[in-house]
Amino acid sequence: MKTVTSWMKRTVNLALAVGASATASLVLAGCGDIYLPPPIGGATGTPLTEYAEPIEGPSLEGPLAILRSAVSPVPEVVNTNAAKVTLGRRLFHDPILSGDGTISCASCHSLDRGGADGRVSSLGIHNQVGGINSPTVLNARFNFVQFWDGRAANLAEQAGGPIGNPSEMGSSLDAAVTALNASPAYPGLFRAAYTDGVTAANLRDAIAAYEETLVTPSRFDRFLKGDTHALTADERAGAELFVSTGCITCHQGVNVGGTSYQRMGAVRNYFADRGTPLTEADNGRFNQTHNEADRHFFKVPTLRNVGLTAPYLHDGSRTTLDETVRVMARYQLGRTLDDAQVTHLVAFLNALTGEIPAAARLPEGELPPRPVAPVAPAMGAAVARPGVGVGAPAVARPGVPAARPAAPAVRPAAPAAH
Ligand code: HEC
Ligand code: HEC
Hints:
Layout: H1 4-19, H2 22-31, H3 62-70, H4 82-93, H5 105-108, H6 155-164, H7 173-182, H8 186-193, H9 200-211, H10 219-224, H11 233-244, E1 261-263, H12 270-274, H13 286-289, E2 297-299, H14 321-333, H15 339-350
Antiparallel strand pairs: 1-2
Helix pairs in contact: 3-11, 4-8, 4-9, 6-9, 11-15, 14-15
Bound molecules: heme C (HEC) (2 copies).
């Protein structure tokens, strides 16, 4: 039986093994420490089965063998607390948690948009444009920390943020608890899941319990478990390149990411070349630590379902995977890829699209009809792009006022991201 611990060890050994090759020693030089992920299991501990033993299949050599040892298949989720998960599912989709009843978690993390929102940066209550791209909630439980800058340790801690953020849901946990207590359905649903009924802690816990079920097995997982033919020849070629060009040094672990902070621009200055003004969100991890060495470091995002979550990067500045892969090669690895390599890598990335469990979707009619959210601009339209259109994107730091001159914000002093 493989255990989480042995996987962690394998992950690190891999980084060293790849680092020993000529290509990737360059990467590691710019990479900083390889962080170990904490034991998976999440805040509320919705249990997982241990990683399945690989099914029988031809043994692999070279890059694909390295890939199989660096990335673990998603484990199966064992849902042992249906009352919590069902409550969390409803809360996640319910705009009752927002100040004016228009925004839910699902507004920015839609299951129909790969767990994200398809925008450069999110649109919150009163059409306020946030300062950073919405990451997917799918498989978020496997990230070693939450948020681009890691400011929440786990999903339950994270879930309190957006509710109280004036520019996202524009409410507070206290106000949410009051609204839930006043609603016909929620007091009973909470009591069914928690002895102490509606509390802020239970609200966060239920949402986290639901998010822990958002695990998406894909063809890539079948490949990892030994079914070599689960990937097409192009996807396998991309998988080999993913290892041989060095992507794997940063994007590893069960989420093909989510195990470390790395500098955006590890080997070349991304921000100088981007051609748009620096934003506070661009500081990344620095905003939390105020340590100069952490400037422009971000949690390496998961690549699972990345085919569904355009636009890309924390600044939402890249609209296609082709473009994003070229940016990664250039700024993280100091390489220029040819068109065929890009095509193969993108084919591989698209094979990381998994299946959202059917039970994750809110059954039709479960929520009473509510006022419709404000009409949202189409993907990529009229949203803040660094230095373009709606004005400089705002900050990603709680409590710091955002400079958002042209945004139609009702509360211009609101912080931008939870
Ligand atoms: C207005 C849009 C918006 C709403 C509403 C919203 N989020 Fe988010 N969410 C974001 C953005 C933007 C980020 C990234 C912020 C950052 O990293 O600074 C994020 C980050 C996250 C993350 C971290 C994922 C990762 O990989 O780091 C999780 C989990 C999450 N949100 C869950 C929720 C939940 C649960 C709710 C409802 C209680 C919610 N979100 C409401 C936009 C939103
Ligand atoms: C030095 C570490 C490092 C290496 C090497 C690296 N990445 Fe990344 N990758 C990151 C970081 C950090 C981000 C987030 C950067 C940001 O948002 O500004 C990222 C983001 C991405 C994204 C965007 C994900 C999203 O949801 O927005 C894709 C796609 C990606 N990487 C693919 C690759 C591929 C393919 C390679 C190899 C060619 C690669 N990466 C190599 C660290 C790395």
